[in-house]
Design a protein that fits this description.
The chain contains 1 helix and 5 strands; from the N terminus they run βββββα. It is globular, with a radius of gyration of 14 Å.
Length: about 100
């Protein structure tokens, strides 16, 4: 479950495609969404004018939904899993630093 913990910085993730070569995606926290929902904007990484691929939103209970039309369900699941694991990893690191 993901609680309202945001990415510390932008993150980049390798996205495997079913029908073409994989690519690196930039995941960026959307700070303007509100306090009860967390959104992560998705872009192609390393482009001067990166294409917006949509966003993944998480509610207070940790459920997510993809807001976009470009990514397949498998790709959406890959990115949501990455975000959940990334946030958990950094939340643990932050709690250890507080000790």
């Amino acid at each position: 479950m993901i609680r309202n913990i945001g990415l510390i910085t932008e993150a980049k993730v390798w996205l495997k495609h079913q029908d073409r070569p994989g690519e690196i995606i930039r995941v960026a926290l959307d700070k303007g969404i509100g306090s009860k929902t967390i959104a992560y904007n998705l872009y192609h990484a390393f482009e001067n004018d990166p294409e917006y691929l949509g966003r993944i939103l998480f509610d207070e209970e940790g459920y997510w939904i993809y807001d976009g039309s470009i990514l397949s369900i498998t790709e959406q699941e890959q990115l949501a899993k990455f975000i959940i694991n990334y946030v958990k990893k950094h939340a643990r690191a932050a709690s250890v630093e507080e000790l």
